[in-house]
Amino acid sequence: MIRGLTGDDAPRLAELELLLFSGDNPWSAADFRAEISQPYCIYLGIEHEGALVAYAGLAKMGPATDPEFEIHTIGVDPKMQRRGFARVLMEHLCAEADRFAGPIFLEVRTDNVPAINLYERFGFQTIGVRKRYYQPSGADAFTMVRPARLLEQAQQHEGDEL
Ligand SMILES: CC(C)(COP(=O)(O)OP(=O)(O)OC[C@H]1O[C@@H](n2cnc3c(N)ncnc32)[C@H](O)[C@@H]1OP(=O)(O)O)[C@@H](O)C(=O)NCCC(=O)NCCS
Questions:
Q1: pLDDT grade for 158, boundaries at 50, 70 and 90
Q2: What is the pTM of this model?
Q3: What are the respective helix, strand and coil percentages of the chain, to the nearest 5?
Q4: For the chain, which end, N or C, has fewer CB atoms within 10 Å of the first or last residue's CB respectively?
């Protein structure tokens, strides 16, 4: 079941972050509460057998008539990976950006092959490297962008890519 997240989900989200991003300053429950309460953010999660197992957040930036988007986070419980949960979350977030024909930007560790593969499947391209972007690990990040598409074009592309 996919649903919108609220501040009440923050403790579980912080628990998942610790599992997934322990070396890179994982977000706390307070960080999640602050993010989710922002009107320009959309946070979605997937519940499986009563537990929240996957989450993702998208921020809408810039002018209302010509917005751009950023994926702020995405994570799947290590025990629940490779079941298509991230793909479902990405489909929803990309569809939201496509409603406004806005590009989506994100950063990803240069050694994070699973995430890079996921993003490439959704049409993201690498456009730069940010040195020592992640702390305290000091790992580099790729900046990736999925160029703006209209919803109909996006559905056509996704049919080609997935
Ligand atoms: C990246 C992540 C979100 C993927 O979640 P997931 O639910 O396992 O991914 P899905 O099952 O939906 O897979 C979708 C696609 O992602 C890619 N992918 C996912 N896991 C992969 C892996 N271990 N190795 C290579 N490619 C992988 C594949 O292209 C896959 O498509 P396929 O199954 O048809 O090959 C998950 O590995 C994760 O939570 N990682 C830790 C947190 C993280 O790094 N988040 C991204 C921060 S930028």
A1: low
A2: 0.93
A3: 35, 30, 35
A4: N
